[in-house]
Request: fold
Amino acid sequence: MSVNANKTYKVLARKYRPRTFEDMIGQEAMVTTLRNAFEVSRVAHAFMLTGVRGIGKTTTARLLARALNYESDSVEGPSVNLTTSGKHCDLIMNSSHMDVLEIDAASRTGVENMRELLDGVRYAPASARYKVYIIDEVHMLSTGAFNALLKTLEEPPDHAKFIFATTEIRKVPITVLSRCQRFDLRRVASEEIKTHLSGICKKEKANIADEGLSLISRAAEGSVRDSLSLLDQAIVQADMEGSMVSAENIRVMLGLANKARTIELFELAALGSIKAALILIRKLYDDGADAIIMMKDLLDVCHEVSRAKVLGAEALSDMTSDQAGLLQEISKKLTVGQLTRIWQILIKSYDEVRLAPLPIAAAEMVLLKLSTAGLLPPPELATKIIKEMSTQSTAKGKIDQSLASGNSVNAGHPNHHSATERVLNTGAVKEISTLKNTMLALNTLEEIVEALPDSDIILKSDIKRYVKPIKVKQGMILYQPSEGAPQDLSGSIVTALKNLTGDLWVVSPEMDGGGSTLKDLEKLSQIAQDEKDKSHPIFMHSLIKEAKLIKIYNSKDEPVRNNVIKGNFGEQE
Reply:
């Protein structure tokens, strides 16, 4: 039999429960307020402690009961300095003091239970300074029980104190809240939890990887008790020889996918690579990742990418450099509108996956939705396209109406009919007809500029000057606008290409990643050509060796000759 077989094991959450206010982590604001109140003797008769599970509401209530009833050889009044254990401290912390009553409102909800409790309020405490009533989950009391409590809560006896704890503060009547001093206990930051867990690991002689502690602290979602329960589970992952518990062990224990793989999954789905996304999620599932947790992780990644898009690198300061780099790269490929749309799809699909009979199948369908959405134009561009389509439809309707009325008028007038034929036979109409009926292959910016009609000369110039191409293919242009670009440049390009090809193009400006403009490329090409021309034999001739090259004309060019007089100076015809 083991030496420790007869010892009752105490879980970490109980073993390391704070015994003083200084031991509380993440609740500095509340501790400071209580300390000041006790120092100036302005202690309320009722307290309301609210917050999520496992952040110290019940512990705070017991510490308050200790502080109110603190007595030692040197201190006789209420005190928040609980470093030295007082006469009543151990009994209060073990929930066995007769003057400190802990009541679970979940099991005693009725008005009769409340009346029975309040009947004892008028009696003085047996041994302590105050009779303290700690009511946990107070929001579960019935309406009648709350009403029975109100009068006593408003004017309690001098020897009675009430401490309420709840996770559902909105369910507590406002008439009760107004009679209490309220403290909102906040979620504890992941870094604070990690530091706390690291200290406990040293005391327990547990060897857990630093990344593993990070995973536990994030999975706890701000709850210290949850983190300690997970740490209890993680410690036994090591064998009896005391080997290190790796991050992979923790990940398997929690049913988590590798963070880098989750980021990769998000990128594949968001950018429309559905085949690769489905293969990856199935592999993660086969490796032990839970489908519901993967959906939650994708929501987290979407949130992190959105913060990186808006706030930059400072939003990712608590991550590893590798993960932060991956998220920043993704943020450059997606617009804020696209990220908002992805978030809406994920948040609505989360419950579908959670309630589905086969969660992994539902998760794969969510990826299909994301990939389909990834191929659509950004919402901000889609709005502009719809507006332009509406404008074009209105214009087309007016033209059709005019042509219809013109046909009815011209039916009996041959002269008018011949005039219409002359208009339809003009070069402009033939040009439009030719462009509309020809399938243009426009896969480069040069081809697009070349295909645009001369009537769009300003737009052609703007494209050459301000468009830094990122990706150009049939039906889509992704570009980075250079400084000074017109605000309506994207809309003008969409309209021109719609008129040219008959199709709606996706034209999306991005923050960075663009190449050189056509204007810059032309300048570079001209510089290279000039250097080449300088090596021509004519240029190297001694007569013009010191001359400056201004311009070289091709044979088809007609140079502009200023200050040249043309005339017959006696030359022979």
User: Anything to note?
Assistant: Strands lie at 46-50, 100-104, 131-136, 160-166, 181-184, 467-473, 476-481, 506-509.
